[in-house]
Each structure stands twice: as C-alpha cells, then as structure tokens.
C-alpha cells in the first residue's frame, strides 16, 4: 500500500517540471528524490508516526496539483478585516504576484519563480540548511517536488509595524510543496503569519516546509495556522533557528484535516534566548490532527514555555508529542511544557506525550499533560443561565481553546480564527 | 408564585428533603435558615435542576408550571435564577460573551426584545457599576481569578441582567466581607418588586440585617420545622439551632 504512494511520488519527481520552468533548483530536487527513495514510509512501527493513520494517503497515486479553480481563489484569499498585512499569496503551490502586496525598505520578499541570478544564489544557499538531520520523508518529498516558494528578509534593526502574511490556499486536488524561508536580521522585530487553507471537498495534499532564522537579539512572532477540513491533507515542517538573545513566539493552530500534521522544531542555538510556544489542535468527524514539537536546547541560559490545548470530538484523533531535549552544554535552561486536552466523545482518540531528555545537570524543567472532559459543574452553571446543554458545551470548548487565541497579540487574526472555531464546536455529535 | 408541596428529594439513594412545604408569593422575600446538613443547598439545587438530584415525591410549581420535570435552562427561561454558593470559573469565555448568550436565550424565551449589542453593553455597564465591579470585569473570563466577593457580586450582576421572577440565593453571604455583603444586599434590595420573589438560603442571620425578609423558615432534617417573621432570625442567632431542633 505504501508503495503506491512512494512509487507514484518518485515517478512524479523523476519527470517533474516546475510550474515556471526554472531549473536552478534541480540539485535540491535530485537530493530530495534520493532521500525520499531511501526513506521509510509512515507506519505504526515508526515512533514518529505511531499514533497516525496514513493509510488513506499511502494508497493514493500522487499527482501534481492541476489548474486552480479561480472561483475558489477569491473566496479563500479574502483579506482578514483589520489585519493590514503585507501579503504574499500562493495558490496551489504557485506564487501569485497579482494577489500579493508590495513591500517596503524594511522587508523584502522574493518568490523563487521570479528570483534573479543573485537572489537564486541566496535562496539555493539557504534552502534546507536549518532542517535537522533525521528521517523526514515529507521534507524529502517536498524537496523532490520543489516548485515555488518565497524568501522573506527583514532588515537588521527593523521594527515591522505591519505583519507579513504568507497565505497558501488550495483549490484543486494533487500535491503542492509551498516553501518559506524567513531571515530576521539582527535586532529586528517582525510578525509573520504562515497560513494554509483548502476549499471544502477538495482532496488536496500539501507537503509544506518553512525555515525561519532569527538573528541575534531578533524577535519573531510566528503564527502558523493550518485550517483543515475533511478532505485536506496538510503535512508541514517548520524549523525556527534562534540566534543569541533572540525571542521566538509561536502561535500554532491546527484544526481539522484528513491529516493535519506539523513537525515543529525550535532549535535554540544562541544563549540568552527565550522561546514561547502556544498551540491548539482540534479534530472532529474523522479528522486527524497532530503536532510534533521538538525544542532543542543546545546552549546555556535559555528558557522556553510551551502551552498547548488539544481537543478531539466525534471520531476525531489528536496527537501531541512535545519533546524537549536539553543538551549537555545547556546549563541553566528553564523549560516548562503544559499540554491540556479535552476528549469529548467515546469514539475520539487523544494521545498527548511530553518527552524530556536532559543531559545537563543544572536545569529547571517541568512538564504536564492532562486529558479530561468538560466539567459537569460548569455545564450546569451555564444551563442555569438559560444556555442549552449543547450551547454550554460549545462555549466551554471554545473557552478552552480561546485561551490560546487570547495569547495572540494580533487581535484581528484571533478574531478571524474565532469563526472557524465556533463552527468547529457547534453541532457536534459525541454520542 | 412558588409552591413547593411535600417535596422529598435526595442524591444517590440518600433522601435529604423529607416532605418540604413552602409557598412564596410575588413580592415576598423568604429566608431559609438551618444548621449544616439540614438540606438548604439541596433545596436550591433541586429547584435549580442540578443533575444527580432525584425527586421521589412532591411537587414544585412556578406560577402553576411544574418545575421539576424541566431542564435547568428551561427553568431559567421560565424566570428562575439560582445564585450559586460557589460560582464556577469558566476560563477563556468572557463575562460579556457569557452574559450576552444568557440574555439572548432568556429574553427570547420570555418574549422580550433581545437588546442590540450597543444596548446590551449599556445594560451590562450599568449593572457592573451597581455591583461595584470595575468595567474590565466584563472582558475577563467568567469568574476567572475573581475573589470570593467578586464572584458573588458577579452572580448579582447576572441576576440583574436576567430579571428573573424567582431568585434563589444559595448561601450568597458565605465568604463575604462586610463591604461585599452590603453591595450584594443593595443589589438584591434594588431588585425587590411586587412581581418578583426571593428565597434566600443562609446559615447566618448576618445577611438578614441587610436583606430584611418577610418570612423566616427553619429547615432541619429536610423539613421546615418553624416559620416566622424577621424576628425569628434574631431569636435563632441568640439561641442557636439546637433550640429549634430540640423543640422539633
């Protein structure tokens, strides 16, 4: 079964012609193909895929994304009210200059498909550099079919007033490999929204990779949002690499999806850094959501806080694997991981697994993971105020997740996300 | 307005209320006092519709409508309000969102115009001022991080917004300092009207200095064992519950 997926994807890579015909990334594609050929496909025997069910994906013949559906493009790329962002839009994996905005002196964005020779050299040099070694079949797949992407550079010392939004939408079936490279210059501050969406009913498959490099004393607010539906398979890898005294804030939202998975690596390579990750993952119907977080503390005097909320309703399946690795030189590390989950039906499944690996002897670490149900006392309280049981449950579930949205400094984005959240909590059948 | 007849109820096979009778007319304030374990909170919960409480016999009607078969939300829509002894924290849901959902549901059921967002905000701000909670409490999570007194004032705020026919106050005075007690009492007194009734459940006479009842009932062993006017509370304060229990 896995062969079907692997063979078709390999065949696709061997004859792959990028949408704009550029050949300068062919070395990366070749390397990706080789890695993909050698990679083991997901199965329950492999620890990192143990709690997922990839059967539906693995029995597919993978094809390239076809022509986009223009009617859906307008709907999916509507601007978020009040957000006022620099926008870069990808439709079915290809950069759309006409839907994107101009940048200013402090931030430059270069699409791979429109890069000049000098820019191509910069991009080639950065691609894949931050992704840690290891078996990553979906990164290899993305490399083997590498098409378009964007390099975003924030000038040293710049303090971006507007957020930068990278919006990737899917309107058609097949595979897309949206790619994002972000370089935050020394001392710069920026908010970057990496957002993935798919039209309802479209059987799209993304293998998305983003690499974010924070310079010394830089601050990045990284919103990584994948709004799934029953037909969308989104597998993302996101690596943040932190320089000295940098501050990284991540707000990760994974809702729905045939599979909606994020492998999130926070690689703390500069001492004096702080990392704060907030995340929410929600599954209902037969959806699967998965966050695999890995925080690498490689240097001394850093701290990290991880706050995650998960929810599985109906026959949904949610996975959180939060690994914090404290290497032997990472003395005085303070790492705190908290992961709370709601299991709303007997048919739903939730796997929450914090993992601490500590090789230094002078550190402070704590982790906690809980799986619970809605508090009956709270439900009764709300009902005595006239709310139906269903409304009380929906509001309590919303509140549970809203704590993550409330942590977001970008309020227009949090407001935008409340709509799909409300829809998510309404009309659940948890019998 | 409220007519409870021969009510027997309990939880998990244990009968706590053993034939309780009480009639409350519009405009009246009834205090129900009694020692710990007498069934005071059980009465509040049974009237509020808390899951887990079983009624084995008897009836409770609000204006002729049987309350006991109703879901808690339907009782609220009929005009029953239960102020909790321990109001629950609901993190992530703002007071404003919660109140708005409650007002929309209850007003629609009672045939009142559902206020626009602007009007709702105005009403909420006024109620907030009346119970002396800062306005930013409306934006905070329901009871999240509130002190005991703030939670009780928040209960009164909700009561003011929902304009119930029958207000059940379950040990609203427990854990309150004297300032908070006065604010709560003023809130209650401001809502007294000829077409609204109150049942105030309390262990101590103190609250009744501020909310002066028309009737005082003593609950012991699941029954009303003595009824009287406001002066009965003072007598109880002086002599203790042993006096009544001994007599009963």
Keywords:
heterodimer; A: 431 residues; alpha/beta; 20 strands; B: 248 residues; Rossmann fold; six-stranded mixed beta sheet; four-stranded antiparallel beta sheet; globular
What does this structure look like?
The complex is a heterodimer of chains A (431) and B (248). Helix content of chain A is 22%, strand content 38%. With 431 residues, chain A is of the alpha/beta class. Chain A has one domain. In chain A, a hairpin with a 2-residue loop joins strand 1 (86-91) and strand 2 (94-95). Chain A is globular and about 65 Å long. The mean pLDDT of chain A is 94. With 248 residues, chain B is α/β, with parallel strands linked by helices. Chain B has a single domain, classed as Rossmann fold. Chain B is 37% helix and 29% strand. Chain B has helices at 40-48, 72-78, 95-110, 117-130, 148-162, 178-191, 230-239, 241-247, and strands at residues 2-11, 14-24, 29-33, 53-62, 65-66, 80-83, 90-94, 141-142, 166-170, 197-202, 215-220, 223-228. Chain B has a 6-stranded mixed β-sheet, sandwiched between helices. Chain B has a 4-stranded antiparallel β-sheet with strand order 2-1-4-5. Chain B is globular and about 50 Å long. Chain B starts with a strand and ends with a helix. The model of chain B has no long low-confidence stretch (mean pLDDT 94). Chain A binds chain B through residues 375-378, 380-389, 391, 395-396, 398-403, 406, and chain B through 48-51, 71-73, 75-77, 81-82, 84, 87-93, 97-98, 101-102, 105-106, 109, 141, 158, 162.
